[in-house]
Amino acid sequence: MAVRVRLGQEEVQVEPGGSAQVIAYIRNEGDQPDHVALEVEGIATEWCAIPIPSFQVAPGEEVQERILIHPPRSTESRAGTYPLLVRARSLENGDSGVAQANLVIRPYSMFALEIHPKRGVASPLYKQVSYELALSNYGNTEQTVQIHASDPEDALAFELERERVALAPGETKEILLHVQPRRLPVLTNPTLFSFTVTARSVEDPLRASSAQAHLERRGLLSPLTLGFLLVLALIGALWYYTRPLPVRIESFIAEPTQITAGETTTLRWEVENAESLVIEPGVGEVNPNLRSVQVKPEATTTYRLIARNRYGEVIREAVVIVQNAPPAPAPVIREFVAEPPKVKRGDAVYLRWKVENATELILSPPGQKLDPATPGFEHRPTRTTEYVLIARNAEGKLAEKRLKVEVVSQAQIVSFTATPEEIKAGESVVLRWEILNAVRAEIDNGVGRVSAQQGEITLTPTQTTTYTLTALDSEGLPAQATVTVKVLPSEAPPPSDGQ
């Protein structure tokens, strides 16, 4: 074999998101200059990069090349040991050398806990409130998580659907948490309790995630509400006996009072004896029988409710706070594959992807913009092609992945045989072949150029020889087949009678 390769280390360790370097030493053991291509097998193509994938090597020369390993920090980069094969292939004669090392992906753990809703209400009629916990494993190893809930005042009782959860890498599980106040008075003011839910890794107790929520305890009546109702009843009685009836705005609020730019909020009111209602700014006159209206302010706004009747008018204000919208999440290309990864010239390849948080996709070639909802694209490459998929979000942030599809030769070697395959020294053998779609063919070991369709040739090898038939299509892409002729030593002549 004219090309040999060896690696500078037997094991390469790297943490997802980091990078490592493998040094490959390539030697040309032939007597002619060679053009060598360096390839990596056994791991995902996007995990590695070869700064100089092909190079010239003089006879007897040994060159040193770098291979960069960079697995992404994602759940797809599972912890474990992967065989790493480095192949140095001669572009002149097809000879190749292979060296192997072990790629060790180190484990890392990361998970998140979310709780919904952030606020619940319990009362003597509805004693228990259910919250939904969403637990996600963003690491590359399986995690077992212990869940615990507590409140600083010890005023709440908690019941978990499950206290321990096993999560595979990239998995999200939902668990129900039931919360109930330990005491539920009938007559009390609303009281807000905060509680914390903590998820802690069993394997790594220092790794934890927490989420907070609130529970509002209400009675059937609050002293304030009871007092207000008594006063209102007294006012109502006085009002009934002391007409004319003045206009009254009982309440005017925004729900919610704080929104993000682009969202809507609801203005609600309770008005009595109004003959006309006007909301400023932007709304104008509304039907007095209505009790709410939706608005979409662009900035923090103070709304004024003006209620009028023949006896006068009343004005009440409500403030809506508008915050800037959070930045759009960065686009992510989860998957970008070709089916199949090798095709003949003119055949179709289906490019398939999975993309998140993107509003636009660009695939090159052919340099076409695509809808992110499109699951894939069919293309017919005429030569070995590197495809680039770019995902863009609404703010112009980009994510990019590359994929190489190899276009193989149209030439097809139907048969290549030797008859017989085993001879004695001095005997002859017949090589026969049949080829389709080739424009040129040749056999090595001194035979040279032969018919590109079919033919045969008689040879008398002096030693065991492997013949390689190479067929080239119209694009110059090769197809190869080999046959080995075993040459046995001839039998020695029998001794003469005089000996």
Describe this structure as you would to a colleague:
This protein has one helix and 42 strands. 20% of the residues are buried. The protein is mainly β and 499 residues long. It folds into five domains: 3-105, Sandwich (Immunoglobulin-like); 111-217, Immunoglobulin-like, CATH 2.60.40.10; 244-323, Immunoglobulin-like; 332-408, SoxY domain (Immunoglobulin-like); 412-488, Sandwich (Immunoglobulin-like). A hairpin with a 6-residue loop joins strand 17 (191-201) and strand 18. The protein has a five-stranded mixed sheet, with no helix packed on it. It has a five-stranded mixed sheet with strand order 11-18-17-13-15, with no helix packed on it. Strands 20-26-25-22-23 form a five-stranded mixed sheet, with no helix packed on it. Helices cover 4% and strands 56% of the residues.
The CATH first-level class of the largest domain comes to Mainly Beta
Question: Strand order of the main beta sheet, please?
Answer: 2-9-8-4-6
Strand % is over 45%
CATH architecture of the largest domain: Sandwich
Number of H- or I-type helical stretches:
1
Here the CATH topology of the largest domain equals Immunoglobulin-like
**Structural domains: how many:** 5
Instruction: Give the total of beta strands.
Output: 42
> What structural class results from the helix and strand content?
mainly beta
Instruction: Characterize the quaternary organization of these chains.
Output: single chain
Low-confidence stretches are none
Q: Helical amount among residues, as a percent range?
A: under 10%
Q: What is the average per-residue confidence, as pLDDT, rounded to a whole number?
A: 87
The CATH superfamily of the largest domain is identified as: Immunoglobulins
Largest sheet: 5 strands, mixed
